[in-house]
């Protein structure tokens, strides 16, 4: 594929991620931190997020299998998880976190379980979309700041 | 007053607001247990010209100060294992630490913000850290540390 076509495709992918509500302004803040000193910053942060949050997802899953449910513990895990999702601008996932915490406050176990399933779907879907996005970005390579050749 | 820190880069990033009258840069200690937040804060603050150090909980922050280190600014997360933000803030103030300590809370923990402020914070902001927040903190730092 021609380079300019790839640029356009990348720009379209990025726009869709925002338009469809997958990402919010915080992601833009991360993009603005990417520079020569940190050329793959955004991808590194997203990779770190998915690696670090696996443990929390697992903890929540285990906690949801207990009977009776410990809503304080569940809320605490979700609070931690939400801290990370907010910091990378993962809008839809963060919304599910908020919903989950509402159900915790209300002591609604079924609501928690249902929301958690939805959360995991959003989490996995975002991962897939971002992986495709970063793969294309890597193919294009670093954005050259030089002008067109004379 | 000499400011000593742990290992940190001395690379100058050129942010003109981030300079004391002496020409030295402002130093910041990030206290947060989330590795994603730690990484983001470090790069963000370095970009604004801070000398940045990161620790994972309140006890590590207190230990650093006990070992003789000091920072112009401490960004203190509220909820952390081992020692949380309010407790670490109380300890530091008890040690007569006069650094600017700014709490970082989540949006939905607003009701606990007052208790956190009462622990001895200079200010409290809602996460996530943004360019606007850092600019505002730099402004406060310039006022506080004008020699």
Report helical residue fraction of chain A. Answer: over 70%
Low-confidence stretches of chain A: 145-150
Task: Indicate the radius of gyration of chain A in whole angstroms.
Answer: 18 Å
Structural class of chain B: alpha/beta
The description of the largest β-sheet of chain B is: 5 strands, parallel
- Helix content class of chain B: 25-40%
How much strand of chain B? 15-25%
Q: How far apart are the first and last residues' alpha carbons of chain B, in Å?
A: 11 Å
- CATH third-tier fold name of chain B: Rossmann fold
Output the structural class of chain A: mainly alpha
CATH H level, superfamily name of chain B = Response regulator
Question: What is the residue-mean pLDDT of chain A, rounded to a whole number?
Answer: 92
Percentage of residues in DSSP E strands of chain A: under 5%
- Quaternary structure classification: heterodimer
CATH topology of chain A: Four Helix Bundle (Hemerythrin (Met), subunit A)
The level 1 CATH classification of chain A is Mainly Alpha
């Amino acid at each position: 594929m021609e380079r300019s076509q790839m640029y356009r495709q990348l720009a379209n992918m990025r726009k869709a991620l925002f338009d469809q509500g997958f990402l919010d302004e915080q992601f833009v803040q991360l993009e603005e931190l990417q520079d020569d000193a940190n050329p793959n910053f955004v991808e590194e942060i997203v990779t770190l997020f998915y690696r670090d949050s696996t443990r929390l997802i697992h903890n929540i899953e285990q906690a949801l299998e207990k009977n009776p449910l410990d809503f304080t513990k569940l809320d605490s895990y979700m609070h931690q998880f939400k801290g990370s999702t907010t910091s990378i601008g993962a809008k839809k996932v963060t919304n599910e976190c908020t919903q989950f915490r509402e159900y915790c406050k209300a002591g609604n176990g079924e609501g928690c379980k249902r929301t958690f399933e939805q959360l995991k779907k959003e989490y996995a879907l975002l991962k897939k979309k971002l992986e495709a996005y970063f793969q294309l970005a890597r193919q294009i390579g670093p954005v050259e700041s030089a002008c067109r050749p004379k | 007053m000499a400011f000593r820190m742990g290992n940190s880069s001395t690379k100058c990033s050129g942010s003109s607001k981030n300079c004391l009258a002496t020409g030295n840069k402002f130093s910041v200690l990030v206290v947060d247990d989330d590795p994603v937040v730690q990484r983001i804060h470090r790069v963000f603050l370095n970009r604004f010209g801070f000398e940045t150090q990161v620790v994972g909980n309140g006890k590590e922050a207190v230990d650093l100060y006990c070992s003789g280190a000091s920072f112009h600014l401490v960004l203190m997360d509220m909820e952390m294992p081992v020692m949380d933000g309010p407790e670490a803030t109380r300890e530091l103030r008890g040690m007569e630490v006069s650094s600017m300590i700014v709490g970082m809370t989540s949006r939905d923990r607003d009701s606990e913000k007052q208790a956190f402020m009462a622990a001895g914070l200079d200010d409290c902001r809602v996460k996530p850290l943004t360019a606007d927040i850092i600019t505002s903190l730099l402004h406060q730092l310039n006022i506080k540390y004008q020699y």
